[in-house]
Design brief:
Blueprint (H helix, E strand, L loop, with lengths): L1 H6 E3 L1 H16 L6 H24 L5 E6 L4 E2 L4 E9 L5 E7 L12 E5 L4 E8 L5 E5 L2 E6 L5 E8 L2 E6 L2 H12 L18 E8 L11 H7 L3 E7 L4 E7 L7 E2 L2 E2 H18 L3 E7 L3 E8 L4 H10 L10 H11 L5 E5 L5 H5 L2 H10 L1 E7 L2 H7 L6 H26 L3 E5 L4 H14 L4
Parallel strand pairs: 3-11, 14-17, 14-19, 19-20, 20-21
Antiparallel strand pairs: 1-10, 2-4, 4-7, 5-6, 5-9, 8-11, 9-10, 12-13, 15-16, 17-18
Amino acid sequence: MKKFVQSLYLERTFFYAFGGIVILFITSFLVPQLFEVSKMVLLILVLFTLLDIMLLFFAKKGVSGTRTCPEKLSNGDENTIIIKLNNHYTFPIKASVLDEIPIQFQKRDFNINRAIKASSTDQFSYQLRPTERGEFWFGRLIVYAQSPIKLISRRFYLEEKKLVPCYPSYIQLKKFDLIAATYRLNEMGIKKVRRIGHTMEFEQIKEYVLGDDVRTINWKATAKRNQLMLNQFQDEKSQPIYSIIDKGRVMQMPFNGLSLLDYAINTALVISNVVIKKQDRAGLFFFSKKIENRVAASKRGIQMNMILQTLYNVKTDFKESDFGQLYAEIKRNISQRSLLFLYTNFETLDGMDRQLRYIKAIAKNHLLVVIFFKNEQLENFSKTDAENVKGIYNKVIAQKFINEKELIVQELRKYGVHVILTTPEDLSISTINKYLEVKARGLI
C-alpha cells in the first residue's frame, strides 16, 4: 500500500476539475438546483479517477527504459545521452522524464515530455557539456506516466545512480584523427607546410669513397687530413616533444565556462596524439609551486593512455607559479634537445619580465614555444562604441592591455623564443600548425 501511495501523483487536470466542483457546491447555496448537479459531477470525477488508477496500476509492467551514457564524458564538448523508453500499456501514454543529471551542471528544472504510442518504443537524446574534469554522478531516471484520462500519473524508477568520469577532450582528439585520415586538415585550419632540406641528421665524418655524394664533403676536415672527408648522415631519429602546462593562478581565467588550464589540457592531449602519429616521442608535465604529473617522452603503444590518465588526474589550487623550479626540472631531466610547448598566460609586460631570465635560459638548450592567450573580452570591448567619457577611458585601458600582449610577443621573439598568441578556441589548431612548421623547417 505504501509503495502504491508513493507512486501515485494527482495531476493538474484533477485539481482543476475538483476546484470547479467546489465552486459548483458554493454556488448551490445561492442556486439550490445546482446541488444535485454538483454531486453528480463529483461522482463522475471519482469514477474517472478510479478508472485512471486501474489503467495505470493494474498493469504488471507499465513502463521500462534505459539511459545510455558514454563510458567517459569529454570535457568542453557536447556529450550525447540517449534515453530509451518502452510503453507496455495497451493505450498511448504521456511520459514526463526527469533525469537526475550530475550536480556539476546545476540544472534543477530538467524535464522532457514525450508522447508514446501503445505497446511501442520511443528513443530520444539530449546534450551535456561539462566544463571540468572529474567524477560525474548521474542519479535516478524517473518517469511519470499518464493515461489518456490525465487525472493522475504513476511514477517509475528506471535507472539507479551511475558514475561517469569526465576526461580531457577525447572527442577533439578523435575529430583531428578522422580529419587527418581523410586528408581534410585544411578545413580545420591546419596548414600544409613544405618540407625544407633533408630528413637526415649528422652521424660521423668518414673518408670519401667513389660514389659518395660530393655535396656532403667536409672541407675543413679535408684540409686537416689532406684527403677528401665527408659528413655521413643517418635517418632522422624521433624527437622528444614535451607539453609543459602552467597550473598556476594565471590559468584560472574562464572562457566559455572552461578555464585556460582545461583548454591547455585538451590541447596537450591532441598534440601528443599528433606527435606520436608523426613517430616523435610525446611527454608532458605540469608546474606551479613544484613539478608534478610527469610523463617521460616516449612513443610506446601505451603512451597515449598514460598521458590521458595523467591529464584526467590533474588537480590544482592555482597558486603562484615558480619558473625557477621549471628551469631546474628541465635542466636536470631533459638532456636531449627537445621541442617544448609551454602553456602559460601573461597579461602584462611586467609579469613576463619577471620570468624572462628563466625563459631565456630554457631556450638556450631547447626549442621553446611559449603559448599564451588573447583576452577576447577586452578585444570585443575595445571595438564597441564609447557613449561617454568613462567609456572612452575604459576603451583606452583595454587597448593598452591588448598592445602589451603584442609587446610580450616581440620581446620573447627577440631572444629566439617561438611564440603563439591565440584565442582559447583556436589553441589546438595553432599548436598543431606550429609543430608541423617546426618539423618542416628542420628546427629540431
